[in-house]
Amino acid sequence: MGRETEMEEEARENGGVDSVLPMASLISPSGNEVQLSELEGKIIGLYFAANWYPKCEAFTPALTAAYHRLKEHGAGFEVVFVSCDESRPSFERFHRAMPWPAVPFGDIGCKKRLSERFQVEGIPRLVVLAPDGEVIQPDAVELVHRYGDRAFPFTLARVAELEADEQRKFASQTLEKIFSINGKGYVNGSQQQVPISSLVGKTVGLYFSAHRCAPCIKFTAKLAAIYINLKGKAQDFEIIYIPMDKEEDGYLQSCSDMPWLALPYDDGASSGALARYFDVREIPMLVVVGPDGKTVTREGRNLVNLYFDMAFPFTDEQIRLLQEMEDEAAKGYPTSLRHTGHRHELSIVSDKSGGGPYICCECEEQGLGWAYQCIACGYEIHLRCGRDMEGGSAGSIG
Ligand SMILES: [Zn+2]
Ligand SMILES: [Zn+2]
């Protein structure tokens, strides 16, 4: 046992915050020293993160919002940033965006010991410790994303409570309850306001999107084509745009691109609440609510990409049917072929023979299950995208 570990061991037995955190002092975002004694008696979140990693950049605002709310309520909570940044300037830039102290960038020994003690392999990671150093949650990132400040104090009992709440909420969900969030009872149509009550009984897609988001714009065009198609078939289907735009300007532009309804703009208050309710982490996202007001799927975007308007009404039953149809259709395809986009022969695979979710190298859309694949190169395309290319070899699968 090394001398340092011995000292830590001894300190742990004595209790106190210096037994929990193996550093001399902390540093505030503005660069001032913060005494460890300020953490005394508090629940501590050790936040392992780095500025270059998008998931950390996405998580920091969520943790900051929860942190501020907990501070307002006087909860005994503190966060300590343990930087995995590669340079001091990037550490300082990232830390300035946070309201809590950090382990000094130069205290490499401390950072190393902390990440070893808590076996930090991926970031972001939020290890929550009780005042006595006991681990309450080995990783609370998901909990903070999902529940914000309500996750405090992050105990198993608290998590069970929140989950039970959530189940109750989803079990009693109706379209009107979902939209009671904006307190208006209507959404905007192109000519007039449409009362939510008039949408009850339909399959309704809640489309979380923003104007300044390239994948959203691409998906909007596809969804619009499908929407018009389904409307043409007189399906009981409606879509409501839930704006994730930061400015009203973007909202108005999105509305002009979309042939469906829109939640009235209110600086993001209602959209933010809906995004939290449906746990929207990235956009575009299409949540589908069934005629009974219950959530059918949060995977509407994938289903539209995979099955186009055939995905309607997005139920498990419909998806199973489509998969069976695909299995049937695959029998008509050659077991292998040469495709102009790739130099090796491609073999047909299904989810039973090594296929899985993929992005088609030909059309860049999602695929699932059946594919033509070059396993050596990781090259995969849809069956439909491999068709009509030169030199398909004969033979079919049974
Ligand atoms: Zn394709
Ligand atoms: Zn290859």
Question: Can you give a write-up of this model?
Answer:
The structure is a single chain. By secondary structure, the chain is of the alpha+beta class. It has three domains: 3-164, Glutaredoxin, CATH 3.40.30.10; 175-314, Glutaredoxin (3-Layer(aba) Sandwich), CATH 3.40.30; 328-386, no CATH class. Helices cover 37% and strands 19% of the residues. It has 14 helices and 19 strands. Strands 11-10-9-12-13 form a five-stranded mixed beta sheet. Strands 4-3-5-6 form a four-stranded mixed beta sheet, with helices on both faces. It has a four-stranded antiparallel beta sheet with strand order 14-15-18-19. A hairpin with a 6-residue loop joins strand 16 (358-359) and strand 17 (366-367). Mean pLDDT is 89; it is low at 10-14 and 391-398. The chain binds zinc ion (2 copies). One zinc ion (ZN) binds at residues 342, 344, 374, 376-377, 379.
Please, what is the average pLDDT?
89
Strand content: 15-25%
Taking the alpha carbons of the first and last residues, their distance comes to: 64 Å
CATH class of the largest domain: Alpha Beta
Work out the helicity level.
25-40%
Tell me the CATH superfamily of the largest domain: Glutaredoxin
Cofactors, ions and other ligands in the entry: zinc ion
Question: What is the CATH architecture assignment of the largest domain?
Answer: 3-Layer(aba) Sandwich
SS elements, strand count: 19
Main sheet, how many strands, which sense, barrel? 5 strands, mixed
CATH fold naming of the largest domain: Glutaredoxin
Question: What's the assembly state of these chains?
Answer: single chain
Number of helices: 14
Enumerate the strands of the largest sheet in spatial order, edge to edge or round the barrel: 11-10-9-12-13
Q: What characteristic shape results from the CA principal axes?
A: globular
